[in-house]
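All the exercises in this workshop are built on plain-text protein records. Sequence and backbone structure share a record, each on its own labelled line. The question running through the whole workshop is how a given chain folds. The record below serves as our worked example for the rest of this section.
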Amino acid sequence: MQVAYSHDANACAAFARQAAEDWHAFLVHRADELRPGGQLVVLTMAKTDADDFGYRLVIDALIGALMDLAAEGVVSSKGNREDGDPDLRAHARGVRGAV
């Protein structure tokens, strides 16, 4: 869910490479959209020198909620390739009941 949790050097390196490519593509496309003199403001997460990304409490709460929903059978760790959902697929009936 968040690369900042990973201790896998290969995963972190792959994330960094992909992030660099994504940022380049993002900035190229935004540059095409800006009018002369226009400015772009971007807010995003970053890690501190202590490797904290600042949203750990929020991410921990999200993971905890997902684990609770998985324990209740509302979500599954099996991805549904037919509709393109990622690893945790919410079942509509269960989600409505949980909200």
In short: Confidence is low (pLDDT under 50) at residues 79-99. Strands lie at 75-76, 89-90.
